[in-house]
Amino acid sequence: MAHSLTYKILQDHLIEGSLIPGEDIVIRMDQTLTQDSTGTMAYLQLEALGVDEVATELSVAYVDHNMLQSGFENADDHEFIRSAAAKYGIVFSKPGGGICHQVHLEQFARPGATLLGSDSHTPTAGGLGALAIGAGGLDVAVAMAKGRYTLAVPKVMNIRLTGALKPGVNGKDVILTILKELTVKGGTGYVLEYSGDGIQSLRVTDRATICNMGAELGATTSIFPSDEHTLDFLKRRRREEVYLPLSADEGAHYDKVVEIDLSSVVPSVAKPHLPDEYAEVAEVAGTPIDQVAIGSCTNSSYQDMMRVASILKGNKVHERVSLTISPGSATILKTLAENGALADMIGAGARILESACGPCIGMGQAPKSAGVSLRSFNRNFKGRSGTKDAQVYLASPETCAASALLGHIASPGEVADFPEPEFYDLTTNYFTYPLPKDQRPTETVKGPNIQPFPLGSPLEEAYRGVVLLKTQDNVTTDDITPSGAKLLPFRSNVPKLAHHAFETLVDDFYERAQKYSATGGIVVGGENYGQGSSREHAALVPLYLGVRAVLAKSFARIHRSNLINSGILPLVFEHHEDYDLIQDFQEVKIENMIHLVKNGRGTVTIDGRDISVVGNFSPREEAILLAGGYINYMREV
């Protein structure tokens, strides 16, 4: 039987189960990555699993999110992660080394490998032909401990690319076009597998950009074949020994096919406040802007930076605009410094930030009140920038640079591609590699801000509570546990974060939870509840506040898994119209909860009205929920 590239890699790594869509399988996990925003919790959970060292061929702990050290909290988190890496045999990437996905692409990812990361943009490595999946920190902790990962077999959507991009058009414009076609939930349940003659016009960095923002479609992951472009990318980084040509079999089966003519793709933007709010640049040209930010794991490659430098060279950033640039890695920053491109950026009036996530995660550079910010990032959720009333647009680096010069959104026109260095001088001095096992420390270092994570309790037979909050469609993990420079330092302190739960939606959720702490409650959501980041804090904080279930029209994949791992029931309306009948603070009764979980469907009584709900839990998910979460389950097996 002819197989897709996705199924070929899954089959090669299969430990348990069969490749039947929707069925649970266990696969061997070759690599993992964490970043500091989610890594503290992942390593606390790894400690709770009681292992001596990781079981993967490679695990890397990056520090790239919580970089602003305005107090001890972030620095303490960095030290805890460093000490955990030393204890368990994990490569540690110091602050300044670069953004995890860009660095991993350059230095560690390989075609045909499996990679699990505690960050939703882990699929970036799919641009190199790796099967790279984003997950919650607990799933990554288990993958490090056991070298394996359980997932439901995804369907595979083939996105066939024809033609070639015009000069000045970026991989970012391609993925924005796909978001227009599929929406932010259109990839749910799928791996997006790219093929067609058009891929020959895309370098690995453009492919990585496209795979990166597949996360905004809700996809399990995205992947390109491994071909001569892959080999060229690896050779320039002196890593050609890991090259492996990979592609789908001729006549491979796909569950859905979408065709995109690259020659028809034009400079594009995502308007506030979702990545699928598509518009051509021509439609919004002339919109005044206050800030431009270029970088992030999406668009911070050498090619992106060189195109930006060529636009800025000899010009001046508009007097009203603040332009910030964050190169993706220390290697890229060093190369730009050596070839003069960095001087061109500074000469134009750009502000050069360190190689980190920075403004993308809300760590600094918040726009002014009601400011318009044009960013080469992957998310423009309301308030994510740090300014609640900011209007954030997403665009390619080329569009961002051209717009920064003019003071309004503008097309970049034709921008030449740039030859890469024959060889990159990969910067490795930010890495700390594991010592031999007998020389490793046996303890981790925990500062006062690092608090234990909450554990769920075994599922009770019956439940009484209230509706703590009813939300709308497309609630994000940024809504559930906001980020930004003020709150990111508390990612290792769930009790502190709990005071800010859902604060982009209501200003009193913590008080509601405290009022009903004796019984707890449920949260009600619309479509695509929990989209966005993989942060499991969006499950751990509600767990800490007594949330026992979330009832929604549909869930984002990673957040649903995180809820189950925490011991919170993710339930789906069988009839979506029942959503309209629910209000805050109505009484909730769930009889026979154990039967509901085992049967996969049942009834929730809200305000005296029976509402049919569906769980569709796999046998493994059922066991985890009955145990009260993944940690409890792992202790039993």
How would you characterize the overall build of this protein?
Helix 20 packs across helix 21 (630-636). The strands form five sheets. Strands 14-13-19-18-15-16-17 form a seven-stranded mixed sheet, with helices on both faces. A seven-stranded mixed β-barrel has the order 21-22-23-24-27-26-25, surrounded by four helices. The chain contains 21 helices and 27 strands. It has 637 residues and is an alpha/beta fold. The model has no long low-confidence stretch (mean pLDDT 94).
Cα(first) to Cα(last) distance is: 36 Å
Helix content: 25-40%
Give a count of the beta strands, DSSP E runs of length 2 or more: 27
What fraction of the residues are assigned to beta strands by DSSP? 15-25%
Name the overall outline.
globular
The main pleated sheet reads as: 7 strands, mixed
- C-alpha Rg (nearest Å): 23 Å
Q: What's a concise summary of this model?
A:
The protein has 637 residues and is α/β, with parallel strands linked by helices. The chain contains 21 helices and 27 strands.
Please tag this protein with its features.
globular, alpha/beta, single chain, 637 residues, 7-stranded mixed β-sheet
Write the layout of secondary structure elements.
Layout lengths: L4 H8 L1 E3 L7 E5 L2 E4 L1 H13 L9 E5 L9 H17 L2 E3 L6 H8 L6 E4 L13 E4 L2 H10 L1 E5 L2 E8 L8 H12 L7 E6 L8 H9 L8 E3 L4 H8 L20 E6 L6 E3 L7 E3 H4 L6 E4 L7 H11 L9 E4 L4 H10 L1 H8 L2 E2 L19 E4 L15 E5 L1 H10 L24 E2 L30 E8 L6 H4 L13 H5 L10 H7 L5 E4 L12 H8 L2 E6 L4 H10 L2 E5 L13 E4 L2 H7 L1 E6 L2 E6 L4 H9 L2 H7 L1
Parallel strand pairs: 3-4, 3-6, 4-5, 6-7, 9-10, 9-12, 10-11, 15-16, 15-18, 16-17, 18-19, 21-22, 22-23, 23-24
Antiparallel strand pairs: 1-2, 2-8, 5-20, 13-14, 13-19, 21-25, 24-27, 25-26, 26-27
